[in-house]
Amino acid sequence: MRVLVTGGAGFIGTNFVLRANRICPDWAITVLDALTYAANRENLDAVADRVEFVVGSVADEDLVDTLVRKHDLVVHFAAESHNDNSLDDPWPFVDTNIIGTYRVLEAVRRHGTRLHHVSTDEVYGDLGLDDPARFSETTPVNPSSPYSASKAAADLLVRAWVRSFAITATLSNCSNNYGPYQHVEKFIPRQITNILSDVKPKLYGAGANVRDWIHVDDHNDAVITIIEKGRPGETYLIGADGEQSNRQIIAMLLEIMGKPADWFEPVSDRPGHDLRYAIDAAKLRAETGWEPQYRDVRAGIEQTVAWYRENEDWWRRDKDRTESAYARLGR
Fold first, then answer.
1. Apex CA 228: angle with CA 223 and CA 230, to 5°?
2. pLDDT for 18
3. Contact partners, residue 271, CB within 8 Å, separation at least 6
4. Which residues does 256 contact at the CB level (< 8 Å), separation at least 6?
5. pTM score, two decimals?
6. Which of 111, 221, 268, 287 has the greatest number of C-beta atoms within 10 Å?
């Protein structure tokens, strides 16, 4: 099967390509990536002889059409995804996440190519800290930031193209990913690399905000499972029951990395910071049999810490620039 992976040099896309190369040997993979600051072509060096790499924007109509025409399946990861950046400059999020998704949709419509669209639980807004509810496939979208609004718009476009034009597509919305190759601007790798640099990790506000964490390998295994077993036109939520507050994650990292429990620095909270995300993945599990490998968040975090310890050359070059950007924001 000829598979086009958009955003395949970013965090989740990189891990998807590496994993699919191992467990789907009949896939001939092409990666399309714009190589923005959050992507790294070197991530795929280990499979460079088995993966075709195309540098370009998912919003480039002619390029996307040419590539989609040659493939049987598009796995659409390409997205701008950092909330703080979307608050500073929303346009790249509109261009990549909305316009780019539109380009993909029109191309798969023209050529009859199958699509799997990858999205986030952030499109649903947030839940109360004491609310027992979790997001499900029927939860209305209620985005809080330009990032999550752009992803919600993309999801709705995909659903409209399924209904209006009968494209063959599946969708997934996942909880917060962590793991190897994640850019140091994100919460978990930022704190890990701070500690490795002998700098106190940073905690937004009181750290009460809760995220439903999932290891990137579990997410990508779920995406492959949906591609193989999911019903066309359906949306599946991907989660591993990994709810932890930011404060709990900081405490876990400090313990794993041998630092005192109070060795962290509170910083100003992010505007519009969502309180809690939580996913009900019952539909995915019931229909496909998927189960996460990392049922214990701590085991996944330990694996992630080990990866960043062993790959300092990979993250060090972006660290100073990232921290300078956070310093301007007071965070």
1. 75
2. 98
3. 87
4. 298, 301, 302, 305
5. 0.95
6. 221
pLDDT 10s digits, 196-248: 999 999 999 999 999 999 999 999 999 999 999 999 999 999 999 999 999 99
Token pair 């995915």 in the structure block, residue? 284
Whose tokens are 């709810």? That residue is: 243
Report DSSP letters for 140-201, one per residue.
PP---SHHHHHHHHHHHHHHHHHHHH---EEEEEE--EESTT--TTSHHHHHHHHHHTT---
Q: Does domain 2-178+213-238 have CATH number 3.40.50.720?
A: yes
Rg of the chain, C-alpha, whole Å: 19
CA distance 141 to 138: 9
Count of positions (residues) in the chain: 331
Q: Convert the pLDDT of each residue in 246-274 to its tens digit.
A: 999 999 999 999 999 999 999 988 777 88
Phi and psi of 172, rounded to 5°?
-140, 140
Q: Which residues make Cβ contacts (< 8 Å) with residue 223, sequence separation at least 6?
A: 16, 75, 116, 118, 172, 238
Q: Which residues contact 53 (CB under 8 A, 6 or more apart)?
A: 9, 30, 31, 33, 41, 44
- Written as one letter, the residue type at 302 is E
List Cβ neighbours of 268 (8 Å cut-off, separation of 6 or more): 204, 205, 330, 331
Give the other-Cβ count within 10 Å of 127's Cβ.
19
- Is the Cα dihedral 278, 122, 211, 39 positive or negative? positive
Determine how many CB atoms are found less than 10 A away from the CB of residue 136: 15
Ordered by start, the domain boundaries in the chain are: 2-178+213-238
Please report the pLDDT score of residue 83 as a whole number.
77
Asked if residues 213 and 246 have their Cβ atoms less than 8 Å apart, the reply is: no
Contacts for 17 with CB less than 8 Å, ≥ 6 apart: 5, 8, 29, 31, 44, 47, 51
What residues act catalytically? 121-122, 147
